[in-house]
Amino acid sequence: MPKMVSELSSIEVRRLKHPGRGRNALFAVGGVTGLHLQITPTGARSWILRMTVSGKRRDLGLGGYPDVGLAQARERAREAKDKVWRGIDPVEERKATRAALTASQKRGLTFASAFKKYADAKLTELGTEADRTRWKSSIERFVIPHIGDMLVGDLAVHDMLRVLEPIWHDKTETASRVRARIEAIMSWSTVAGHRQGDNPARWRGNLDALLPKPGKIAEKGNQPALALDEAPAWFAALRKREGTAARALEFLTLCAGRSGEVRGATWVEVDTKTKIWTISAERMKAEREHRVALTDQALAVLEAMPRLADTPYIFAAPRSGQLSDMTLSAVMRRMQADEVKEGRAGWLDPRSGRPAVPHGLRSTFRDWAAERTDYPRDMAEIALAHRVGSEVERAYRRGDMIEKRRQMMADWAKFLGAS
Q1: Which of 15, 22, 23 is nearest to 70 (CA)?
Q2: What percent of the chain has pLDDT over 90?
Q3: CA-CA distance, 246 to 239, in Å (whole number)?
Q4: Closest Cα partner for 58 from 36, 96, 89?
Q5: pLDDT per residue over 71-104, tens digit each?
Q6: Strand order of the sheet with strand 35-39?
Q7: Beta 45-53 vs 35-39: how paired, if at all?
């Protein structure tokens, strides 16, 4: 019969020391037969349970001390001995569990890792660096926060809905592209052996039964815009607001530019002598260099911005990087909230009734050019950096009407009430 050992207290266990010679020392602590505190010559401590399983002596590690306290070590020892009584070898069971976990980890691949592997393998097929950047940023922004840590083998249709439903109605075009990109990543994961079964991001015969068709959603592709008659009042309210984001939004409005173009604008892109802002092809959606004719009002906005030594950006974020797209949107949301607080409807799109957003300001400019001026349609389209005419027509058109557009943008500034 095993010799009974008196139960040591927590204080007594803490006072135990290695004798200073020989190998690891074992001290029986009592409470559970075979439970020992092992102390190495260097002072490291851990719990060992010595027991007999099927006639063989087994040593089972129960964790390090003090991370595993005395009471917890005794509880783990009792559980292990109970398994032995039921015919289970705790040592072999642990080995099998660890082997299964290792095998699972080798087979398993998180969506974030699959995204990176897919991007490394396939994104070189996209035409430009700007295309690749947009592709990756859409996944990083809209997908990774929701399912990035999940294994691709565990992802199901309801996980796709968690990603897509929040943006399906308000950012329909973007959401459609995100869905297709998830489908591509999941397809790669299946072929690479990291998952089995149907692709949960597939549209036909799958998500089309749960989400409305993009073409059926009202105002597809149209961002809420300011009503033309309300644009001057809105612009006046904007100019009263302080902050870098408000000035960036003011500059965006005067130039009828896109948010990304303005947020990424650098001082070296602006020639104050010729009054031209040149945006490289890599930063343009159409992948072509775009020149913007700067009016005196737009230049005044730039002149009021401080030139910070630690950033190339004109409208820099507090930590010297680019402003986020949400920062400009937040300015318009606050302006809308102020109007509602005063009991007014606010700055709403006359067609959809939704609050206007930064990208919708380009539509307001286009309405103004078409309805309130005699400027040629092509001139307004070029100002918006849209492709104009057929491939043949574009091949023969050498100029971009920069000086004619300057007068048009000056008239736009005058319409807005800029002085």
Answers
A1: 15
A2: 56
A3: 8
A4: 89
A5: 999 999 899 888 888 888 888 888 887 776 666 5
A6: 25-28, 35-39, 45-53, 56-64
A7: antiparallel
**Domain positions in the chain:** 10-106, 111-216, 228-416
Q: Within the chain, how many helices (H) and strands (E) appear?
A: 17, 7
> pTM of the predicted model, to two decimals?
0.53
**Which pairs with CB-CB distance under 8 Å and at least 24 residues apart come from 277-284?**
281/128, 281/130, 282/128, 282/129, 282/130, 283/130, 284/130, 284/385
In whole angstroms, give the CA distance from residue 195 to residue 148.
Answer: 15
CATH number listed for the domain at residues 111-216: 1.10.150.130
Rounded Cα distance between 181 and 109, Å, is: 17
Fold classified for 228-416: hpI Integrase; Chain A (1.10.443)
SS3 169: coil
Q: What is the homologous superfamily of the domain 10-106 according to CATH?
A: Integrase, DNA-binding domain (3.30.160.390)
Q: CB atoms < 10 A from the CB of 339, how many?
A: 18
Q: What is the pLDDT of residues 200-212, one digit of tens each?
A: 999 999 999 999 9
| Tokens found for residue 95 | 């080995």
In the predicted structure, residue 396 carries a pLDDT above the cut 60: no
Which tokens sit at 48?
A: 């060992």
Could you report the per-residue pLDDT of 224-268, keeping only the tens digit for each? Answer: 999 999 999 999 999 999 999 999 999 999 999 999 999 999 999
Strands 290-293 and 276-279: antiparallel
